[in-house]
Amino acid sequence: MNEYRSDLPNRPDRMKDLPLDERGFPVPWFVAWIDNKPDFRIIRERGVAMAHNHQTCWLCGHTLGRYLAFVIGPMCGINRTSAEPPSHLECADYAARACPFLTRPMAVRDERGLEGMKEPAGVMIKRNPGVAMVWITRGYKPFRAPPNGVLFRIGDPTEIRFYTKGRRSSRAEIEESVNTGLPFLEKAAEQDGPTGRRELEKAKMAFARCVDKWAGHV
After folding, report:
1. Dihedral sign of CA atoms 92, 95, 101, 105 in order
2. Do residues 39 and 32 make contact, with C-beta atoms less than 8 angstroms apart?
3. Which of 48, 175, 42, 164 is nearest to 109 (CA)?
């Protein structure tokens, strides 16, 4: 029986029935088990569809409530798109403060052994953003994305929380994450010509207002 790590924040009650891996981290509902071991890089079979169709929390596996929370990076906040369905607020907040990848800005994704695995829908920005956002909203909508996947359009926020290294982000950390990530979005926008550039500028301005509103005091 593995023990919960003492250096992690307290788990939400809904997450206390999740199994623990050999390091003492809770294994989220969405994680696939390979040879009786959790592989946090791989989503369980049909996990996205099940979570969306049954309104299941992506992290704890229990039924969602009125408020929905997405754990995303600033670039997803600009284009208001997520490859993962939502979670409970308390579960998402916990993930932003406890997930090893999200709380360690220098961490990189280990892609060994993933050769031949199905790529997620859309265009994935393979970097650690350094800032994890908990985007709280009351609605979202799925939409088809190439090649044969689904992404989620995130609704207007009722609140946004910004985290770095498991604590609230400074304004400078948020701006650094945005500035280093924008070249990826700008490159994609260029492919759509003037329309793409205009849409990106509008999205950037909308996101800047969100930062002013919910991180302006940091």
Report:
1. positive
2. yes
3. 42
Residue 127 CB-density burial (10 A; 0-12 exposed, 13-18 middle, 19+ buried): middle
The helix or strand, by DSSP H or E, that contains position 201, with its residue range, turns out to be helix 193-215
- The mean predicted confidence, pLDDT, of the chain is 90
One-character DSSP codes across 78-106: HHTEESS--B-HHHHHHHHHH-HHHH-TT
pLDDT at residue 119, as a whole number: 58
Bond into 147 cis (ω within 30):
yes
Pairing mode, if any, of strands 167-168 and 157-164?
A: antiparallel
8 pLDDT higher than 60: yes
pTM exceeding the 0.85 threshold for the entire prediction:
yes
Which uninterrupted H or E stretch holds 200? helix 193-215
| DSSP code, position 73 | -
What is the 8-class DSSP label of residue 20?
Answer: B
**CA distance linking residue 26 with residue 190, whole number of Å:** 41
Token pair belonging to 6:
């003492």
pLDDT tens profile 113-143: 555 555 555 555 567 889 999 999 999 999 9
